[in-house]
Design brief:
about 120 residues, alpha+beta, Trna Endonuclease, Chain: A, domain 1, 5-stranded mixed beta sheet, about 40% strand, globular
Length: about 120
């Protein structure tokens, strides 16, 4: 597995642990729908939260969350819709970003709630 993929998987594990400590229940990890992947799907306070995890080893080129593109958002919305329809849920849906900076000297986690709207 490439370094980039390993870093991403480590970041997802860090984000999942972080969210669990905040009281979120992990419903699914790495849900795939066509060309889209949902990193984490979590649940808290009657809300299903789709979480995009962005991991970098530094913030030299900018904060990780800045790399969530409009194309990525469009794919995530389609995948989230498929997931919710598959489960036949009627819960409120929210999109969050967890930005993780991981390296030998730093472990920084930023949780952005309601990162974008799906309408």
């Amino acid at each position: 597995m490439s370094y980039h993929k390993q870093l991403g998987r480590r970041g997802e594990a860090v984000a999942a642990e972080f969210l669990q400590k905040k009281g979120y229940e992990i419903l699914a990890r790495n849900f795939y729908y066509k060309k889209a992947e949902l990193d984490l799907i979590v649940f808290k306070d009657e809300v299903v939260v789709i979480v995009e995890v962005k991991t970098r080893n530094s913030d030299f080129f900018g904060d990780p969350q800045r790399f969530v593109t409009p194309k990525k958002i469009k794919l995530m919305v389609r995948a989230a819709d498929a997931f919710v329809q598959q489960k036949q849920w009627n819960y409120e849906l929210r999109f969050d970003i967890v930005a993780v900076v991981l390296n030998s000297k730093q472990r920084q986690i930023t949780h952005i709630t309601d990162a974008f709207y799906h309408f």
